[in-house]
Design goal:
The complex is a heterodimer of chains A (253) and B (374).
Chain A lengths: L2 H9 L33 H4 L17 E6 L5 H9 L4 E6 L2 H17 L7 E5 L2 H8 L5 E7 L17 H10 E11 L2 H13 L3 E3 L2 H4 L4 H8 L1 H8 L5 E7 L7
Parallel strand pairs in A: 1-2, 1-4, 2-3, 4-5
Antiparallel strand pairs in A: 5-7, 6-7
Chain B lengths: L28 E6 L5 E6 L3 E6 L5 E7 L4 E6 L5 E6 L3 E6 L8 E5 L4 E6 L5 E6 L4 E5 L6 E5 L6 E6 L6 E6 L3 E6 L4 E7 H5 L12 E7 L4 E6 L4 E8 L4 E9 L4 E6 L5 E5 L6 E7 L2 E5 L3 H12 L1 H5 L19 H23 L5 H9 L4
Antiparallel strand pairs in B: 1-2, 2-3, 3-4, 5-6, 6-7, 7-8, 9-10, 10-11, 11-12, 13-14, 14-15, 15-16, 17-18, 18-19, 19-20, 21-22, 22-23, 23-24
Helix pairs in contact in B: 4-5
The chains are: A alpha/beta (253), B mainly beta (374).
The complex binds S-adenosylmethionine.
Chain lengths: 253, 374
């Protein structure tokens, strides 16, 4: 840990990526020493979003709840954009790589310090979305779930590391409320096909009708707001976006 | 009734023709289950065979099929039309009973090793327990639809049991040394029993783990008996269904390692232990206390059967713990990194406050010299 990074924290300066570099891939199937709540209700949400948990809130007010999740949020570009577009909605970024998550937290802190009263609705935790979603979120809690430039894991043997898989889709269906939306963006055509296929085949999801896509203000933003999106643009790799809607639950027979 | 013993030798059954010849398994049986009526019996073994038997009017092997991965647990529906098989890669496959040769169908998957699978008494819900801390409840007819997660265990979930005469209640056990009761459809935990406080005083080691390896339940009286990994004791509880609690009743100390336990319908408790001289024990409730029965004809007959076939059991004598490698291990130092970082932030906050209140800023300097850099 470098002294420069400490200085940065102390002054809540915008963090510099060079202090937070980490290998590109962490194995999502391995045991990590991660901190996660045993159950969603055990999570100290107030410490992540203090301005949404005022001590003087009248008793009986339902506690604020995270509504958007950014899976593999990386350096946090989407969280910053969401904060400005939806200032009343809480968004949580989940990032597996510890140093990258630490960077994003520092970035949010710096923005909060520079513009008091803003950016209080977004936060980032280190977590493994392939294992911990039900630790963080209750059934049907989320209305939007984002997968921007997920790791492609090209090798066949690594396909089980892919964040989109039949097993994971059931879990995404669990945390999303019926009508909730999944957004995916990737610059890897093979992965785009993979995601279209798996969401397309899953009984809990349907592609959003094109007519309804046009009105969504997020759509033009998504390919450009994150670090990975900017990298893809610089490299001339066109991103593909897809949106899927959570269908109603099947009847209990 | 037919007094003869049915013996089926897995080592003489057909094995998978595997071109590569790799990954050959032994004939060890990894999991088995009866159907709720007792009319069917299925087992899976280390050679990845799934073998189905009918038991009435007499025992007969109906089919030998092959599963994709080694299995950890299986369950047969009350309708007796399907077997659900849970495996080490986290998947559950179903196999038809009515078409005993048909291939399996993938039903659901966890991103973890599965340790147990159970069905509600009416077959409507399928419950799966994994090596992380999760119990998942899904619709059996639409298993992609997750009804709830029962969250709260801190280690792998070793056993789950839907209480047959309280169809909304689930009993679970875990490497975290607890037994828990759940309203499984909502995922709400209604009772947590710390085994170390109940079984603790007798334990030799102070950090003894109570990982339940077997659970058996008796509807008559609502008795629950458990066996813990590497502890030669059977613990008996009674379920208070109205209060949704487990009441500790009694323990039975064994002279040898316990291998398995089972309640009979009327409440007799069978114990299989690692001892050729007395492989089977039987306990009977008498005025609320369980006492050993020695003069039972059935016990004598079964003990002889086991002794006569001891070669089958011999291989497991002295076997190590099945669970020791399943406790969560950590392999990176991120925790430490974050803890230190958090500490630094706290220090900085304190320093700011101290400065505001006019005290010295020594603390921060000291922190720096004491901390090695990453
Ligand atoms: C290619 S990056 C994209 C980051 C960001 N969404 C962007 O567009 O810039 C993928 C990120 O997902 C993270 N990740 C991979 N698997 C994950 C998991 N199971 N849970 C949480 N994050 C994960 C990786 O650490 C990495 O930072």
């Amino acid at each position: 840990m470098a002294a420069a990074e400490e200085k940065e924290e102390e002054a809540a300066l915008p963090p510099q990526k060079r202090f937070y570099r980490q290998r590109a891939h962490s194995n999502p199937l391995a045991d990590h020493t991660l901190c996660y709540p045993s159950r969603p209700q055990d999570m100290d949400w107030a410490s992540l979003f203090p301005s949404f948990f005022p001590p003087e809130a009248p008793p009986g007010t339902p506690p604020a709840r995270v509504e958007f999740a950014d899976v593999g949020c990386g350096y946090g570009g989407l969280l910053v954009a969401l904060s400005e577009l939806f200032p009343r909605s809480l968004a949580l970024g989940l990032e597996l790589r510890g140093k990258v998550a630490a960077f994003t937290r520092a970035r949010i802190r710096a923005l909060q310090a520079a513009q008091p009263g803003r950016f209080g609705n977004v936060a980032c935790v280190r977590g493994n979305a392939m294992k911990h979603l039900p630790h963080f979120f209750l059934r049907g809690q989320l209305s939007k779930l984002f997968f921007l430039f997920p790791d492609p894991h090209f090798k066949r043997t690594k396909h089980k590391w892919r964040i989109i898989s039949p097993a994971m889709l059931a879990e995404y269906g669990f945390v999303l409320r019926p009508g909730g939306l999944v957004y995916t963006v990737t610059d890897v055509p093979e992965l785009h096909q993979w995601m279209l296929q798996h969401f397309g085949e899953h009984p809990l999801f349907e592609p959003l009708p094109p007519g309804q896509l046009a009105a969504d203000p997020l759509l033009p933003l998504l390919p450009a707001v994150t670090e990975e999106g900017q990298r893809a643009r610089r490299a001339g790799r066109p991103p593909s976006t897809a949106v899927f809607r959570r269908r109603p639950d099947p009847p209990v027979l | 009734s037919d007094e003869s013993l049915f013996v089926y030798d897995c080592s003489s059954a057909e094995k998978q023709q595997d071109g590569k010849g790799t990954d050959k398994g032994s004939d060890d049986i990894l999991a088995f289950a009866f159907s709720p009526s007792g009319g069917y019996f299925a087992l899976t073994d280390d050679s990845k065979r799934l073998i189905l038997f009918q038991t009435k009017p007499s025992w007969e092997c109906l089919s030998v099929r092959f599963v994709n991965r080694r299995c950890t647990s299986l369950v047969i529906t009350a309708a007796e039309d399907k077997i659900f098989v849970a495996d080490k890669s986290g998947d559950v496959y179903s196999y038809s009973i009515t078409e005993p040769k048909a291939d399996g169908k993938l039903e659901l998957g966890h991103v973890s090793l599965l340790m147990d699978v159970a069905l509600s008494a009416d077959d409507q819900y399928i419950l799966t327990a994994d090596r992380d801390e999760k119990i998942r409840v899904s619709l059996t007819k639409a298993p992609y639809s997750i009804v709830s997660y029962c969250m709260g265990h801190r280690e792998f979930v070793s056993k789950i049991l839907v209480i047959p005469n309280c169809p909304d209640l689930l009993l679970s056990a875990s490497g975290d040394s607890t037994l828990r009761l759940w309203q499984y459809k909502s995922g709400e935990e209604v009772h947590c029993c710390q085994l170390s406080t109940i079984c603790g005083p007798q334990a030799a080691k102070p950090d003894q783990k109570y990982t339940v390896s077997r659970i058996t339940y008796c509807c008559q009286g609502g008795y629950v008996a458990i066996l813990c990994d590497s502890i030669p004791t059977v613990y008996i509880f009674q379920l208070d269904a109205t209060a949704q609690q487990l009441l500790y009743k009694q323990q039975i100390s064994l002279k040898h390692k316990g291998w398995d336990i089972a309640f009979e319908e009327m409440g007799d408790l069978w114990i299989l232990q690692e001892d050729k001289e007395a492989p089977l024990l039987m306990y009977r409730a008498c005025d609320g206390q369980w006492k050993a029965v020695t003069d039972d004809k059935g016990l004598q007959k079964m003990s002889e059967y086991i002794q006569d076939n001891w070669t089958v059991f011999e291989g497991f004598v002295g076997a190590g713990s099945y669970y020791s490698h399943l406790y969560k291990a950590s392999f990176d130092n991120m925790d430490e990194y974050l803890q230190r970082k958090e500490k630094r932030l706290q220090q900085q906050k304190k320093k700011k406050q101290d400065l505001q209140h006019g005290s010295s800023g020594q603390a921060k300097k000291k922190m720096k010299t004491e901390e090695p850099s990453l």
